[in-house]
Amino acid sequence: MKKVVGFGDFLLRLNPEGYLRFSQADRMMTYYTGAEANVCVSLSTMGVKTEFVTRVPDNDIARAGLMQLRKYGVDVEHVVFGGERLGLFYVEKGASQRPSKVIYDRKYTSIATAKPADFCWDVLLQDAGWLHITGITPALGEHLPEICLEAMRTAREQGVAVSCDLNYRKKLWTSQQAGSVMGEILKYVDVLVANEEDCAKVLGICAPDTDVEAGKLSREGYISVARQVCQRFPNLRAVAITLRGSISASDNDWAAMLYTQGEAHFSRQYHVHIVDRVGGGDSFAAGLIYAMGHGFDAQRSIEFAAAASCLKHSMEQDYNLATVEEVLTLMDGDGSGRVQR
Amino acid sequence: MKKVVGFGDFLLRLNPEGYLRFSQADRMMTYYTGAEANVCVSLSTMGVKTEFVTRVPDNDIARAGLMQLRKYGVDVEHVVFGGERLGLFYVEKGASQRPSKVIYDRKYTSIATAKPADFCWDVLLQDAGWLHITGITPALGEHLPEICLEAMRTAREQGVAVSCDLNYRKKLWTSQQAGSVMGEILKYVDVLVANEEDCAKVLGICAPDTDVEAGKLSREGYISVARQVCQRFPNLRAVAITLRGSISASDNDWAAMLYTQGEAHFSRQYHVHIVDRVGGGDSFAAGLIYAMGHGFDAQRSIEFAAAASCLKHSMEQDYNLATVEEVLTLMDGDGSGRVQR
Amino acid sequence: MKKVVGFGDFLLRLNPEGYLRFSQADRMMTYYTGAEANVCVSLSTMGVKTEFVTRVPDNDIARAGLMQLRKYGVDVEHVVFGGERLGLFYVEKGASQRPSKVIYDRKYTSIATAKPADFCWDVLLQDAGWLHITGITPALGEHLPEICLEAMRTAREQGVAVSCDLNYRKKLWTSQQAGSVMGEILKYVDVLVANEEDCAKVLGICAPDTDVEAGKLSREGYISVARQVCQRFPNLRAVAITLRGSISASDNDWAAMLYTQGEAHFSRQYHVHIVDRVGGGDSFAAGLIYAMGHGFDAQRSIEFAAAASCLKHSMEQDYNLATVEEVLTLMDGDGSGRVQR
Amino acid sequence: MKKVVGFGDFLLRLNPEGYLRFSQADRMMTYYTGAEANVCVSLSTMGVKTEFVTRVPDNDIARAGLMQLRKYGVDVEHVVFGGERLGLFYVEKGASQRPSKVIYDRKYTSIATAKPADFCWDVLLQDAGWLHITGITPALGEHLPEICLEAMRTAREQGVAVSCDLNYRKKLWTSQQAGSVMGEILKYVDVLVANEEDCAKVLGICAPDTDVEAGKLSREGYISVARQVCQRFPNLRAVAITLRGSISASDNDWAAMLYTQGEAHFSRQYHVHIVDRVGGGDSFAAGLIYAMGHGFDAQRSIEFAAAASCLKHSMEQDYNLATVEEVLTLMDGDGSGRVQR
Amino acid sequence: MKKVVGFGDFLLRLNPEGYLRFSQADRMMTYYTGAEANVCVSLSTMGVKTEFVTRVPDNDIARAGLMQLRKYGVDVEHVVFGGERLGLFYVEKGASQRPSKVIYDRKYTSIATAKPADFCWDVLLQDAGWLHITGITPALGEHLPEICLEAMRTAREQGVAVSCDLNYRKKLWTSQQAGSVMGEILKYVDVLVANEEDCAKVLGICAPDTDVEAGKLSREGYISVARQVCQRFPNLRAVAITLRGSISASDNDWAAMLYTQGEAHFSRQYHVHIVDRVGGGDSFAAGLIYAMGHGFDAQRSIEFAAAASCLKHSMEQDYNLATVEEVLTLMDGDGSGRVQR
Amino acid sequence: MKKVVGFGDFLLRLNPEGYLRFSQADRMMTYYTGAEANVCVSLSTMGVKTEFVTRVPDNDIARAGLMQLRKYGVDVEHVVFGGERLGLFYVEKGASQRPSKVIYDRKYTSIATAKPADFCWDVLLQDAGWLHITGITPALGEHLPEICLEAMRTAREQGVAVSCDLNYRKKLWTSQQAGSVMGEILKYVDVLVANEEDCAKVLGICAPDTDVEAGKLSREGYISVARQVCQRFPNLRAVAITLRGSISASDNDWAAMLYTQGEAHFSRQYHVHIVDRVGGGDSFAAGLIYAMGHGFDAQRSIEFAAAASCLKHSMEQDYNLATVEEVLTLMDGDGSGRVQR
Q1: Which pLDDT belongs to residue C333?
Q2: Phi first, then psi: what are they for A101, rounded to 5°?
Q3: Which pLDDT value is given to residue F267?
Q4: Cβ within 8 Å of residue F224, ≥6 positions away
Q5: Which of C267, E230, F14, F318 has the fewest Cβ atoms surrounding its Cβ within 10 A?
Q6: How far is A313 from A270, CA to CA, in rounded Å?
């Protein structure tokens, strides 16, 4: 498939080793991530040409981050240098009944202060076949909604498919703000990804009899939500919803549904013993883009995306480093985890 | 609530990284702990003023230990310097069917050779509202029973509540010795904490049809034990018993019972996937002291204590670094371990 | 029991810390292992005198490896120095649905280029009571089948018992090659160890209605396989088959069967939460050798071997560092993993 | 001596292990520092009562930082919570001809957005005998000059001695801005600390024939600078200038001069083999405050300050953890570094 | 300047942490290096477009290595997959009087078994302006001399400049073999780099009165050697010789000479306190290529190359991660290693 | 040469990583050492058969320590199990002007409470050719002088050579006690090793005009001391004195003198850049035993011992892991630390 372009935030992730709490740590692991960057890394690992677009300060920390993307095969040629700081976030990994904790420090960053003139979308999307953003990007700064819309309009003009992961972050904006901006953006989207809460919080679309917090949406509930979303945004080719069952911080159930052409397709459900769940949603989006970009049918598409993100949960960091072969082995196999010699 | 004073042993804890056995390790993690110190740290993390009293040698290792307590907000102003050594213990963390292993080296320590004149309880308990010791402290050295009793008598005189965790350690003394000394000490105790085996080993109080080793005490059995204890020590306001179901070194069931005013209150049961279970009992005692010191009713008290110690199992080290908010979220919520952003 | 001699490959094992993938690691843990060396270490830890025979290059890395064996009590006095390189393999530890990955780099090694004249079996087996090899050893190089057969003939002459773990490795040779060579070797073997696939791949012996990949062999199937093997090789005193149920890379069921004197004995089944499963089979062989070498009856022998290898899964590295006492405690106890203070 | 209060920035320091460059690191050491906080830690380690005043966001990272100060005995009771972020900086440790590199990310922090009303200096200086700030603090944000001046006026009113380390940071403000603000602040200062460049850049005071960059100021030059400073600010009781001779990033010469009552006193010069030089100036200020606060004469004061900061260079982190005894041993001894058993 | 292509070996480097000896280490740092790969990384860090050509096995370890090159900006698009193994070497870092130790395991590797047909030099050199190899490459395997010569002939045809670092390795071939092969190769070389011993061992060219081992070649001796080399290979545009003065494993003197157009130019001499000296020669070659490729005059070229490699000695790993700005700062400055804030 | 037996203390050594102070460390490196054990490890590394005799508690920590000795080839077959604890000590590594700090916790250990009946010297010295102890051993406990004397008398009876390192430790006993006990022991000693202070403190033997603290003993002074010692103990075959010049905690001068048959032989002097100097004296004793045991002449003996201990300073831990070849290379070479490929 043609190049996939991701556009969004880029942050330094800091987390204590193992299960130490912040106050116990005298060192932290350092990675460079971001929702759309993660999607690019996953796709690149699957052999797809990708490019990540963002804006970072002109210093060695930002450059180290770009190097890491380049390592995993993501092109960063058109990253814009400027602004004052790279965002960052701290992750304290949870276990058992103790939830993971994330502290963001992503204001006043180079991307948050970006201006429309920083990005020349005609050029950026030149060889692209697919553009991916998440609901985080337009929430980052004053000009970001405008920049995102310009990107999407250019994509439509150039025949570039667009996917969007709703990814609502309540610390970045309110439901109202998100609903208003995303309502515009979604008009340009072909494939929408959302988790259980996003549709309710951003679009105000719920299923009857839903208790989102408890993750107790029924099969019918998910289908109902997807149908409503497609009705409101008829441009959507497909809506994918991830279904996380949080048993504890160490164990989750994980499955997903793809709603397309009026039909709902549910993936197999996985019981995952979690190594690191940050980036789980991004790996799902990447898997879905891969599958749809390679012409998988709907059922295989959702199985591929679910299996890809299932594997992500077994890896440290935000990146999904699963190859296509590994994903296919899982989705077509028994997930028994036998040693591969 | 007023200041809680803990009095007891203070040791360097050494453990290999991860699941390495002693012979495989070329470095060990170093923490400074002790049953009552752990209680102080947990309470301090919950916002309670605490002070820890012990006796340590005048060297940089002991000082590093006191600094660690100070870091977590525990006052160590009245720690006595003297004697020759800081005790220590080695922990080899178990997994699955392999049990954790603990090797103690706690003889001839500064606390073990303490004399009554080392501690001026009038001063030490001046601003205190609560005194906590465990059954380990009087077992440490020749003069410790006397010192503990003096502490407790002073507490009674000054209206300071007293809690005691039976904590029987067969390597420190025999059942007979423990029974004789603890029988005296318990006369001054308001709140007693015990695990499944302590009451049988120290007080000779069992339920009918009990197989303690197998942890197969029935609900009725626990109530019977608590009732007998309260009959023998009518000064006891409450008896709390922790109920650990050891599935393996990696997975435990965990619950607790509070017996007070002739009624038994059982907490919800948690299935914990263990990060480090050392300090589990101490975190329970701290949770109980917090709840009772803040006037929680019996049911919420035992729920709070059980939830607090449930969270402890998800943390490295002996300390429970759960905040009041985290404990309440667990006891009032679903323990699903969702990421907190 | 008398000295056990192991003969086989010796490799440097490299694996990233924790659950990092190869591309994420900037350091790797280094151990020195090998199927037969692992058996020696386990037996040595159980108090049995052992010696390991191999051929390694004359350099500091090989010497560091031998030092590690010596640390665990394995005699390496007769290791032959020569050749050009020590083999190595890389292990990426899997988790949940992601399988562990092993990359071998074991060609052209000192052992692979060994010649019959390198080993004087009369001397090597002088004080030995037992010789152990695996199906890996004859597959390593041109002269290895011959060397192995010479070892076994000498063993028979000197009244040394011989055990063999079939251990088929498809990257080293084909089923045909393995079948032909192992068919000769097995004529000298007293105790045969195999896992689910080995008998089918090497000896072409299957049970009716078997799906080896899925690990769905029935009890009857295992018995049938063992019976057929014993019929073909009447010299076999006993055939042991390990039964691994791969739930995921993190969780396995584990049990084993011993077939001897026409009777099948099944061990208890363990649910293991895996720390590191490499070396699981070797620890089973060691447990079995210990039990049979100490005259345990058939049922206790298979229980001992299964419990020993169950414990291995809870340890890092390939070595089983469980003592006899620890194994007995597990096989006679409840596996509840209570802390040992 | 009475309590010393420090007021200023508080940052998370991140640095790769050892001599790795930023792009090579996948983890960083994490400490919490700040010029005035470092002074407090050093004084506290020397047994002086200290308190650190700053403004930090209400999150677990900031709290972990305050815990670290508390560990080293610094009171943080009056730290103000508010604002959005904790500042941070990245340090890449240099060696030989490669200089250390520092990247700051300290804008928009809680302290930078502080308002005068956040600090009630009457209360904050109640039990204090000494107030210490650096030239970094007034440069941090819009209201900081005003806040600093208010602190100093209150100090003068309450008879609290004031020390100031010029500490010019060209990334925070221009020479002009610094000169104007510091010119006001210095009117309230009793003891001034400066390094070779500060006086020239901030106060425009140079010695004749100076090449500051090359560190080639003559003895007479230093005296001339100090004399001029004292003439402009007659309130100054003493001016101390540190004399660093940068041989390489691994080796420095280090000495200092104290100018007081019209006389210049030079310390002995040390050749230091550097472990970590960040915090060197702060440790000098702390040593000087200790010496002057304890009534040392001028020569012993500058010897003490120079020896204290010499020792700092042999320690990791920004903190000087040298005790008074260690400093005296060095200044009165031969610095031969014999093992202390 | 146009793209620089490097061709040669690619190996996994393993070294214990810090100064541990091999037998003390239970983990090793892992990097992926090679003489020509190092040159590419250094040039890429300086902003030059580079590509590295080699042959590696098709496995995750080799791919992790290529990812690391890609991270540092080196194009690896035309790396050939095939063969059985990636070479590796173990480094034990020396200190003071204890020399570093290197153990190679680089036989039978994918590059050693490469065939001429694996590399299509017309394509590989298409956009290149410079080709760099070392004397290691033709020594690696049977067909490597032929492959190298083909590369060089193609380079000459396409007007690509060629540099070669003699880099004699006595474990790979004899002086005779090296002399014969390199004698052919040097006919195509424009710029030759050599250290003190190479010219004597490979070309049999010595200065009168030389004691190479002791590094006591005089200025005149170096000039004499360079002159003789240029006389034998009149195609050489320039000969550069590095001058290492080994004081100890921790301290070296370092300088270099460039002989071109009949004139010798000596760089300034640096006293380096060593962090890691492996890769020192490669960083010199990279610096020289950069300088000559950018039209620096002879004196500035040799100063640039010497300063670049001086900085390399202050970095961990084989790579020189110095930027052009850093090199210029050193060569034009005083090397005093002041902190860069 | 025949087996060398060492007898003495055996301790766990704990030290923070790198140059961290005790209060900064959350993990410590763990090794198992002891003066005589170190001598055995060094000799074993040089190919000499060695056995170490001590008494340790019957627990996994002690066993891990013995495993480590076994790893380095030291026989521990006759180590006695009993008593309560393994001694330990904490090392904080110094740098530059900051001295290393050692905190001992070696009282009440298994060796300190040993009784004469624990050691059957007839058996222990059966195949031995040499017995080595230090002045630490008799200072450890009540019965140790007696045990040592019995060992030495047995040695004399069986024709076993005896060496002793005076090694005065003021924390273990007074000069008077040491003088009295060592005066007896030295009557049985053939080779005496001492550092600059030992002779004065233990034997009261000084040179005229000596300032021991400053290490300013003249050549003549050293000779005078050795001569006096030999006069008092005519049984001494040789007296070796190490000459450490402490420039700083990072840099030392190191040389030694051997006085034998009325002649003094001085070794070459080394300037050592220190990695870890603990164990420096032990490595010297080992080098001397090796040289004298292999019949080196006096000059080569002292050169060998000095070179061996010079190399020790470049290694982490207490052990000298230098081979005979490495020592000879240094003593016969230039110590330039060139890489050994």
Answers
A1: 87
A2: -125, 135
A3: 97
A4: F207, F208
A5: E230
A6: 11
Please report which confidence band the pLDDT of residue D214 belongs to, taking 50, 70 and 90 as the band edges.
Answer: low
- How does DSSP classify residue E46? T
Residues 6+ apart with CB under 8 A from A91: A13, A14, A15, A100, A101, A102, A278
End-to-end CA distance of chain B: give it in Å, rounded: 31
- CA C95 – CA C18 distance, rounded (Å): 10
Output helix, strand, coil percentages for chain A, rounded to the nearest 5: 35, 25, 40
Cβ of E60 and C17 within 8 Å?
no
Answer whether C321 sits within 8 Å of B247, measured CB to CB: no
Q: Coil, strand or helix: which one is B259? A: strand
Do the Cβ atoms of C166 and C240 come closer than 8 Å? no
Q: Position E4: which residue type? A: V
Determine the Cα–Cα distance for residues D43 and D323; give it in Å rounded to an integer. Answer: 9
pLDDT of E315 strictly over 60: yes
Report, as an integer, the average pLDDT of E195-202: 88
| E85 touches C107 (CB < 8 A) | yes
Residue type, A266: F
Yes or no, beta carbons of E169 and F341 under 8 Å apart: yes
Helix, strand or coil for residue D8?
Answer: coil
> What is the maximum span of chain E, computed from C-alpha positions, in angstroms?
53
Please give, rounded to a whole number of angstroms, the shortest distance from the CA of A334 to a CA of chain F: 41
C67 and F72 within 8 Å at the Cβ level: the answer is: yes
B–E CB contacts, 8 A cutoff, strictly below? 3
Query: Of all helices (H) and strands (E), which one includes residue C148?
Result: helix C144-157
* D·E CB contacts under 8 A: 80
Across the strands, what pairs with E12? E32, E88
In this prediction, residues D193-207 reach a mean pLDDT of 89
Q: How far is CA E223 from the centre of its chain?
A: 21
Cβ C71 vs Cβ F76: under 8 Å:
no
For residue D199, give the DSSP letter: I
Contact E23 C108 (CB under 8 A): no
Chain mean position to CA F124: 20
pLDDT for the residue numbered E208: 74
Q: Do A105 and D92 touch (CB under 8 A)?
A: no
Per the CB < 8 A criterion, the answer to whether D187 and D221 are in contact is no
Model confidence pLDDT, tens digit, residues D139-170: 999 999 999 999 999 999 999 999 999 999 99
Chain F: list its partners (3+ Cβ pairs within 8 Å): A, B, C, D, E
Q: How far is CA A35 from the centre of its chain?
A: 5
Contacts of E17 in chain B (CB under 8 A): none
**SS3 sequence, A260-315?**
ECCEEEECCCEEEECCCCCCHHHHHHHHHHHHHHCCCCHHHHHHHHHHHHHHHCCC
Burial class (CB in 10 A: 0-12, 13-18, 19+), F250: buried
- What is the 8-class DSSP label of residue B95? B
For chain A, 341 residues long, the average pLDDT of each consecutive 10-residue run is 97 97 97 98 98 98 98 98 97 96 96 98 97 98 98 97 96 95 97 90 83 65 94 97 92 96 96 95 98 98 98 96 97 78 70
Could you give the CA distance from residue B240 to residue B231 in angstroms, rounded to a whole number? 15
Q: What token pair was written down for B194?
A: 């015990």
Q: Token pair for residue D304? A: 């003490």
CA C130 → CA C52, C151, C259, C309, F270, distances in Å?
12, 11, 20, 20, 53
Tell the residue number behind the tokens 């010569």, with chain if given: E149
Mutate to test the interface with D, among A21, A27, A58 (most CBs of D within 10 A): A27
Give yes or no for a contact between C19 and C93, defined as CB atoms under 8 angstroms apart: yes
Token pair recorded at residue E189: 């070389």
Q: What's the rounded Cα separation, in Å, for the pair B124 and B8?
A: 13
Residue type, C24: Q
